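Page 42, continued from yesterday. The earlier attempt failed because a stray header line got pasted into the input along with the sequence. Redoing it now with the clean sequence only.
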Amino acid sequence: MAVAYTSPWYAALAGFYAWLVIIRGTVIFADRVAEKRKKDSASAARNRCVIALICGVAMITAGCAVSAPVIQMAVGNYPQSGGVSNLVVNAVFALVKCVSAVTQQIRAFAFKDPVTRGLRNLSLIMALMSLLTLQVSIISMLEAGASLWQLVVVLGAAVSTAILAVGACSVIRNALELKKYPKQKE
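This time it went through. Structure tokens are written below.
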């Protein structure tokens, strides 16, 4: 859509989702590599904490990246309307992401594994952003006045803040958990 509408807003959004996919892929790949190279259960647990800590830092950068489309809306660079088809696509995407995030939150609640918590938090971040995107699609289709765009900016800032908070909580939790394990000898 960034190319179709030549919209920097959609380009920033595409960059955000690409960053989340890179984070998720890197976390899964690093977890698989760490699993193969583990020496004992303590080193495996420590490695998983390090992976989750890095995932939390990446979530903080994602929270900062969300601010790009929000700032664009704040200065009046609104995305173009894609019509009803865009609205339907965003609604289906938001529904799938929200159901997936809620399911993962419920299923992974009892898991103590830091990598699983990190992946669960990434799904929550995608769900929050998909809801914001759905709201933007609805407002752009209705061509509502500036007061509704101001609401989107406020909610966009709330989503950005929530993403930063999830990332910060992840970093703090995993840093504290990492202190339980002795440093590995090279």
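Notes: The chain has one domain: 8-178.
Reminder to self: strip header lines before submitting.
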